[in-house]
Amino acid sequence: xxxxxxxxxxxxxxGGYSSSNVKNYSATKSLNFAQGVNINTAPxxxxxxxxxxxxxxxxxxxxxAENKFVKIKLNxxxxxxxxxxxxxxxxxxxxxxxxxxxxxxxxxxxAVIDFSVDTSVSGSDYVSSGTLDGLSDIQNLYxxxxxxxxxTGNQYLDNWFDARIYTKDKEEFFEDTMYIGPEDHFYIGFHxxxxxxxxxxxxxxxxxxxxxxxxxxxxxxxxxxx
Length: 226
Description:
Elements: H1 3-13, E1 44-50, E2 52-61, E3 67-79, E4 104-105, E5 108-109, E6 141-149, H2 155-158, E7 161-166, E8 177-180, E9 185-192, E10 197-212, H3 218-221
Parallel strand pairs: 1-3
Antiparallel strand pairs: 2-10, 3-9, 4-5, 6-8, 6-10, 7-9
């Protein structure tokens, strides 16, 4: 028996209807319309370059869903995301832009990077330079994850909202910082702890720091999932 359909049929017989208003999912028994109300149905966000910040602003609770989960999947191909801010340092270095444009600008000809050239061949007066991504030569790479609950400024609402990191095994992590591999995934859970409509403001930083497992301190190693 399809329980959802049975509930909807009962509502229709009583003259009601299934509401798609996110604020009324719970009250109208229409949670089947909600996304990510449990960790098994969490929508997926994929990230391929670091650093990157996910920003979440919404509301939970009261007549709507009281929980929301998001799955963040890492498939890190390199550093220097085009979406990153140039004033944010990464591993103590400030990123720079690499222009892909062609032509002359301000009396300067744009340089072209040819990745197909054999950089092992040297000229008479120079040695060819190579392009090396900062991640490619790190063995047993780990990426730092930071969860930040920025709150809304209303303590009477903020005290009843909770955000948590969950490991790829769907277990709650004990800290707001975690180190995982470049092809791992994790979950963020948003939880309303009271019967109110609770707004939230949460950010998740991915890749503000990366390093080899062999270079980790004991404290950092404790922040890796078991």
